[in-house]
Structure prediction request, 329 residues.
Amino acid sequence: MSFLKRSRKHRQNTPIAAIESLEERVLLSNVTVSIDDGTLNVRGDDGDNKVNVVMQSPFYHDYGYPSYVQSFNGTTINGEDRIGLFAANSPCIPNLVCFSVDRSGPNPFSLARDLIINGGNGNDTIWVFGANLGHNLTINGGRGDDSVQLRSTSTENNLRIFTHSGNDRVNILRGSLAGNQFLLNTGSGDDAVLLKWLEVPGRTSIATGSGEDQVNIFRAEFSDRLSINTGRGDDKIQIKASEIDAAFAIYSGSGSDNIRVLDTEMTGTGRIDAGRGDDNVRFVDSTTTDDLSISGGGGTDTLDFFRSHGMFDSIRARYFENGDFAELL
Ligand SMILES: [Ca+2]
Ligand SMILES: [Ca+2]
Ligand SMILES: [Ca+2]
Prediction:
């Protein structure tokens, strides 16, 4: 039985004053799922929506596993707890309302068209698990403190995530983006981004706007241009055990920022600008084979290298007062 139905039943025996306080307390939210021209649309209302899109995944070779859109913690999906996604190779869950989706994309697991998820206003939790999309995946968190998590999810074309104002968290885990561009903009607020085990053949643009932001990249591979801009505020950027095989630019804007590049290979021309504020830039066990220009900007800045001294030949550094590079000058 859905949360909505339980609540209605409860309401029949409850005095009016108690109903009002009950509705305030368990403010129900609903997510509307529809298929429009083959695109799977998932739209949250202005409440705090919690939604999980699960699709059978080629990663697990679990051919018979059903695909569905599920709610949790008080959110309903088209008034139900769960909506099935039916396709020839993906059975409908018994006793469930099921939508037929076209999964005739590049492989038997693909959703042929787009998946678009809009959280709307409110503090939304949006999870996508195992989706393999023949086209684009677009997630709009809307206003509020949103949490977006992708796991084992890939697109043939673009991945776009926008979380707007609010303190947002975006985790992309074990995602293989066999597609084109990756655009992430977390808007204003103190945002946290974690990218782990991610491949992007197309361009990548990560922008976290004003606020004290954290960008953590671990075991990622960027084959085309990479741009990271964390805007104003005291930001932390860490790139670890990754490969950057094209031109890249990292801007951390004003504020006292911390930029760490650990165990990472860079083969394209690079530019790092830490902007105003007392910034700290540090390379550990990292290499670059092309020109890298680093600016500390205004403030008292530190540039350090640990087991990365082979990088000196390719580096042009300006506006650093402290650290290994300052000693070299
Ligand atoms: Ca939201
Ligand atoms: Ca934000
Ligand atoms: Ca910022």
Remarks:
- The first helix runs from residue 3 to 12.
- The longest strand covers residues 192-200.
- Residues 1-12, 58-62 have pLDDT under 50 and may be disordered.
